[in-house]
Amino acid sequence: RAMDNVLERFQFYTPSLNSQVSHRLQMASQLRQAVQKHELILHYQPQVSLDSGKIVGVEALLRWQHPEKGMVSPLQFIPLAEETGLIVPIGEWVLRTACEQGKRWHDMGVHGLTMAVNLSAKQFALNNLATVVRHALDDSGLDSHCLELELTESASMETPEKSIEVMQLLKSMGVRLSIDDFGTGYSNLNYLKRFPVDQLKIDRSFVQDVTSDADDLAIARAVIALARSLHLEVLAEGVETLGQYNVMKENGCDKVQGYYFSKPLAVDDCTRFLLEHTKAS
Ligand code: C2E
Ligand code: MG
Ligand code: MG
Ligand code: MG
Known about the structure:
Shape: globular
Bound molecules: ligand C2E, magnesium ion
Order of helices and strands: HHEEEHHEHHEHHEHEHHEHEH
Strand content: 15-25%
Strand order of the largest sheet: 1-2-4-5-6-7-8-9
Helix content: 40-55%
Radius of gyration: 19 Å
């Protein structure tokens, strides 16, 4: 049945579309098996507080270790996972795995670390999302305050009134909520005001040229000011240079994430990184 969704997208039969379809069908069936074959893994990217210079969180980022293709980026298979509905079991696996890892790091003495997990619109629209989250927390033993769910504006705006309800339910469990890629989707400020979220993540596209492009600097400052006045935290994504880091610090951004500090790391590398950087505290 999931295959039907893939096929529905192609209304006209041509040889070239046919080969696209069969390629996608092949990818879809490989992706379905990837979960059982343990080909999906999570990498973790540190998030740093600009106040303390300490690592305050990590974002879990999905990777597919494909037997022939090597490491496949989520940008190449998340859309397919969404169309086929596979994002639901995959997303649940991500949530559980990330919570388990968060608890493991806590038990190693890395305390107060937030584990950020990306949710797709499909998952957010599920009726049992809060239950799935509840089970991931209970089964792992991770403190709910240590889990942060990342949503996009578009996912939240599909059915905004329902989003508010789901967000309130998650907030009542103690989970943190963050708006990912802020500024790239539909921004309805009336809803943003009503969404019980904790943080905005400034999209990387505004951060990239922030030291050279006055418009990008203006946007970054405006998002930081907006977050301030709504009493939200604000994190800049994709900080790669000292210059970008300094701009964010000077303008009162709370946190940064990006290659300047670290690329997303395989679990063992991240463990080493976390232990090294939290030793002194
Ligand atoms: P995102 O949530 O906005 O994640 C940040 C992306 O920016 C990651 O790409 C990360 O590797 C990349 N990045 C971080 N710092 C830098 C930097 O300094 N420079 C540059 N050029 N890039 C940087 P990645 O891992 O390829 O993930 C891409 C997107 O795929 C994510 O964007 C997210 O939307 C989605 N994604 C990843 N994992 C999951 C998942 O478990 N579930 C869902 N639903 N989506 C996921
Ligand atoms: Mg994200
Ligand atoms: Mg993002
Ligand atoms: Mg994204």
